[in-house]
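Case study 2.
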Amino acid sequence: MLQVALQRRIVCCSNSKVLYLLASSALATALDAPPLPGWNGTFPCSGPRYDGPRSGSVFCFCQLAQNPACNHEPCTCPEGCDSLVKHAGSVTFKNFDSASGCANTEALLTIPRAYFSGMSDLKNHCPRTFVYVLAALFRDGFTAYQSLVRPSAVRQCIHREFAVSVRWLHLHTVCKGGSIDGMPNPAVAICGTMNNANDALSLAKQFDVQLHNHTQLQVPGEATFLV
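Prediction:
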């Protein structure tokens, strides 16, 4: 089941990015999309234990994700640690940054409950199930967008590791044809389009191919750090 919360405005993270998170005075429920082929509805890979900083942006994401390494400690996020749209393996919240090129400029972020610093880290830890973990994220972001923003096709993007400041894997979802935080731009991110929830697995396979084909060369002084 997808849990959808009412919305309130709160602030996230030490980099002063402002996020609209979904918190909980009233909850409604809606059915998730059908399971992916060959997938039982839960994340098929466990991430490494989070042992990073106990404050700052990454720890805030860890607490928002309700990761076991962080969810028993007092909340350190300036905006509080209530999120969201809750899925089996992820949570979704609204990005305060607006998408451009969209009739509705709202944008979403979806993060796994398990800790991975980015796509390459996920690939290293879960080589056999990488596409299923990504597909679950895509599906969760897509279904959250349908409920929270509008029923429509979406563009989904993930920054490459060298182009992020918050090192917790996170998926951006905006309208089809929209842009946000320097994306789409193949130099710093991989992006694709979902027209319905059944596109999740094929999109994940496209991301896998692009990640494999991309040589991550970072020229000193030329990296752009984004959320």
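The longest helix spans residues 130-148.
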